[in-house]
From TrEMBL:
The lineage of its organism: Bacteria, Pseudomonadati, Pseudomonadota, Alphaproteobacteria, Hyphomicrobiales. This is Uncharacterized protein. It comes from Microvirga aerophila.
């Protein structure tokens, strides 16, 4: 008899969904993982649910890390321009003008992108410089997120190993019993 999470009622009713995520995407991942592992009993079904939750958490953390870097771009751009600004030939000395440019740049305005690219080029920099500054500004948070991702991935791998170990043990028992059958 195969056991599928939908057959287990309330045990699988709760989904670890946060704002911006969909139950449909989670359910699709759970369904695909269940089909791939093909749990044979309640323990394996629980491990599959744990594995899916850990995959979901790991992917969420990766998205959040990317989002953190994206939100840090504006501040990083402002800092780079201010730090590298030459007071004698300054293009941008007014902080509010710089903040407005940063906002327009983030909104995707073509003129703002061209202006930012020109300012960065004048200083021997590029968009990678902005992202490097954003990374530097958020490095502690990113390292923390990376540790959380590594932890979720390690727990997922352990659950997968438990299923494999359990199945190998069962296969050995069945083989042993089959060998004991007179024939």
């Amino acid at each position: 008899m195969r056991v599928f999470p939908k057959d287990l009622g309330s045990l699988f009713a709760k989904r670890p969904i946060i704002l911006g995520e969909t139950t449909e995407a989670y359910d699709e991942l759970l369904s695909k993982a269940t089909a791939a592992v093909d749990p044979t009993d309640i323990l394996e079904a629980i491990w599959v649910k744990d594995i899916v939750d850990l995959i979901w958490e790991s992917q969420r953390l990766r998205r959040l890390k990317a989002g953190l870097l994206l939100t840090a771009r504006k501040t990083a751009l402002e800092r780079i321009i201010q730090v590298t600004d030459d007071p004698v030939s300054s293009i941008m000395r007014d902080r509010s003008e710089l903040q407005t440019l940063g906002s327009r740049w983030l909104e995707g305005e073509v003129d703002a992108h061209a202006e930012v690219a020109a300012i960065l080029k004048q200083r021997g920099l590029n968009l990678d410089s902005v992202m490097a500054q954003a990374l530097s500004d958020k490095l502690i948070e990113i390292e923390r997120i990376d540790r959380m991702i590594a932890s979720a991935d390690a727990r997922r791998n352990k659950a997968l190993s438990e299923i494999e170990r359990r199945r190998e043990s069962l296969a050995r028992r069945v083989k042993s019993e089959a060998d004991d059958i007179p024939g």
